[in-house]
Amino acid sequence: MASTERQITREEVEKHNKDGDLWIIIDAKVYDISRFKNLHPGGASVLLDAEVAGQDATEAFYGLHRHEVLEKPQYQRLQVGVIAGEKSTLHGRITGEISGVPYAEPTWLTAGYHSPYFTENHRQFQKEVRLFMDTVIYPDALAREADGKRPSQSVIDKMAEINLHAMRMGPGKHLQGRKLMNGLVKPEEFDYFHELIITQEFARSSMRGYGDGKVHQFLGYHR
Ligand code: HEM
């Protein structure tokens, strides 16, 4: 059985509440932070606090960290099991997902908002661009941010395949005869609002801090 499936009771976790033998619960998952304690960027003392050591630290954790911290492999490895009979309820962003949080998305593209300019095709286009950003651009932006290298050729090729750069230049003759976004939008239907969506998606991904400057490099901007 993988260590992340091991069923552990809350009573058991409470026993591991001291320096050298330290467990905590975050969102029904049990983490052994005995050794990590001394490497914790937030210091060791907070982890030895009576309300944290051997306890459910979900609120304390989410008050101070982004969810993505727990998704990093070096921290995922700290998980030793799950609380018996309980289920995790918190998750990070779902790939390609359009946020339901009020004002997290451009209002004119949110469901129920009527606009004389934006059509269903624009909304579908937004979804496709978001999915492309999440699955193709982000992973490479993160990796290139870490190693300082240029965007991967494979990513540039994929961008060329859907004609992202051509679309980024806006509507016009240069789109004629090209297949845009796998055929989702016809060259003669492509308008400034489609272009706006692409620009917004790149800006959004930079704001989220995913490979910040690197995301702009994909569009040919420079820091
Ligand atoms: C498995 C458990 C934990 C991991 C992997 C972890 C990891 C980290 C990391 C990577 C940082 C650097 C900042 C960031 O990237 O967000 C950090 C900062 C911090 N952590 Fe934790 N942490 C854990 C549990 C906790 C708990 C339970 C507390 C509770 C009280 C805590 C309190 C803090 C504080 C006070 C900071 C400094 C925040 C700041 O400087 O703004 N951590 N932690």
UniProtKB/TrEMBL annotation:
InterPro entries in the cross-refs: AcylCoA_DH/ox_N, AcylCoA_DH/ox_N_sf, AcylCoA_DH/oxidase_NM_dom_sf, Cyt_B5-like_heme/steroid-bd, Cyt_B5-like_heme/steroid_sf, Cyt_B5_heme-BS, Cytochrome_b5
Domain of life: Eukaryota
Gene Ontology cellular component terms for the protein in this record: membrane
Record's protein name: Cytochrome b5 heme-binding domain-containing protein
Transmembrane segments: none
Lineage: Eukaryota, Fungi, Dikarya, Basidiomycota, Agaricomycotina
Domain Cytochrome b5 heme-binding positions: 5-84
Keyword tRNA-binding recorded: no
Gene3D superfamilies for this protein: Acyl-CoA dehydrogenase/oxidase, N-terminal domain, Cytochrome b5-like heme/steroid binding domain
Keywords, in A-Z order: Heme, Iron, Metal-binding
